Amino acid sequence: MTDNHDPADCFFCGDRAIGIGIGFTTPRDKDPRWLCMSCVPLAEDIRRLRRPDAYKIKARAGGMDAAAPLVEQFGSDLAEWDESQVLLFVGAIWDGCSARLRELVRTEAPF
Fold it and tell me: What CA–CA distance (Å, rounded) separates 21 from 32?
């Protein structure tokens, strides 16, 4: 278990956080909102987001795009995949969503 001063997960994309956060903007803030190395360059853009969930929902397409080649390679019946194939698949989805999320923050106007 970590306290609020020990980074764990990036509050924005879920990757492993480093010791940089964008919280503590008011005395009421309890969470420093740690960021990962990939999200740190977007800190100001992330701070300005009013509806981050809208970006996260739209970013799911990146996970789908990243996972598609694995479905093509291993077949569409996930019940036939072994554990290593499933782990590759889940990792591709996670990485694809995170990458698309950061891309959306950099390139799309807030919606």
Answer: 5
What is the C-alpha end-to-end distance of the chain, expressed in Å?
Answer: 35
Q: Give residue limits of the domains in the chain.
A: 1-48, 51-111
Indicate the DSSP class of residue 78. G
The pLDDT tens digits for 63-108 are: 999 999 999 999 999 999 999 999 999 999 999 999 999 999 999 7
Query: Global pTM?
Result: 0.78
Question: Residue 21: in which H helix or E strand, if any?
Answer: strand 17-21
Report the alpha-carbon angle 85-91-94, nearest 5: 145
Please answer whether residues 101 and 59 qualify as being in contact, where contact means their C-beta atoms are separated by less than 8 angstroms. yes
